[in-house]
Amino acid sequence: DKIAGNLKLGALNIKLIASNIRQLSPHQLKMATLIKYGDGVEGDIVLGKVVSDSGAVNHIENNWGRDVVLYKGDLFLGVLGNRKSSTSEYGGIHTSITISPKTSLTLDLLAVGGILGHGKTVSPLRHSKKFLRVKIEGFLGSPEASEKLNIINLCGKPNCNKHSFTTPIVFVCGTSAEVG
Fold first, then answer.
1. What pTM, to 2 d.p., does this model score?
2. Residues 99-118: tens digit of each pLDDT
3. Which of 94, 95, 88, 77 is closest to 148 using CA atoms?
């Protein structure tokens, strides 16, 4: 099941869930809590609030694959991450970030998939040369496990059974936005 439009996290209205969080089920969202403070790592799902008026990337692809424009004040679910590109926005969280009661944390929208991190470089081809700024309101938490939700834990475990495939599978690997 996909989730779209008029979302609730407790009493909060959320505009969208970024496409990098495709595996979040409606049940998980309904049961989720907001963890306001702690340390975050790559893949942690966060609640972000747009705090700037514009940026190089000002929209996010939702989990239906549709682009949704973000405006100052919008709340959305994104994911902490790192993005390296020779042709697009570049930045990340490196190893981790901390949200504490003493200081708020504001990150940059690095990609339309909802990746959030410390922006380093905006593509010279972009009209706007600055990042869309997003205040991190907290981590999405799982009440069953009393821990932060990370996208790696939303995916099913790979099947360990061996299969006898006769058709070869070709993978294209690379580090550029244009690979494949």
1. 0.83
2. 988 888 999 999 999 999 99
3. 77
